[in-house]
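Teaching soon. Invent one.


***
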Amino acid sequence: MSERFAGRLADVIRRPLITEKATQALELNQYTFEVDHRAAKPDIKAAIEELFEVKVVGVSTMNPPRRTRRVGRFAGKRAQVKKAVVRLAEGDAIQLFPES
């Protein structure tokens, strides 16, 4: 685990991503999260295991290029996003939608 997130593992995970593809991956026990773009795979694994008390089998990450955005004559860049697909051990699950 890198020293950047030592003691602050909750800062690694930003939010779960709920897309059609991510919802289909839930059947395969794979969960998709938006993570800090500086986080490495061991950081992501440690954060998920500590926050949700589950066993992580594998972590896949995607770091797509930043998108440019125009508003009138002003051009800028969107925030950098890194996605992580986390595969959990058989029998483990994360409750993304709390029951009310």
About this structure: The chain has a mean pLDDT of 90. The chain has one domain: 3-88.
